[in-house]
Amino acid sequence: MPASGWGVWEHGLRLERMRPSPRYGSVPVDGPAQGKDIMAKWDEMIRIYHEEMGWNPLTGQPEEETLRRLGLHDWWSKIKEGAQWAGE
Questions:
Q1: DSSP secondary structure of 62-87
Q2: Is 14 left (phi over 0), alpha (psi -120 to 50) or beta?
Q3: What is the pLDDT of residues 32-70, one digit of tens each?
Q4: How far is CA 49 from CA 6, 12, 13, in A?
Q5: What's the pTM?
Q6: In the 8-state DSSP scheme, what is residue 57?
Q7: What is the DSSP letter of 21?
């Protein structure tokens, strides 16, 4: 990651980055969550989260209806077409 930290902005924008680091995905050895493996249910939790947010559960992208409801459909269409969003 560059020293500026810009790589942080990409976290969560790609499905392969939607998994926690090994440290946060590990099974706790003590405390109230001792022995509970969150990773066993991780994919299901992400799918449910995406569905509840109105995002495609396979791609993580917003569904057309979600964009329309939020008034972002035209903006998203321009982004997908490769148009610059500043000035258009």
A1: BPHHHHHHTT-HHHHHHHHHT--SS-
A2: beta
A3: 999 999 888 888 998 999 999 999 988 888 898 999 999
A4: 25, 13, 14
A5: 0.59
A6: T
A7: P
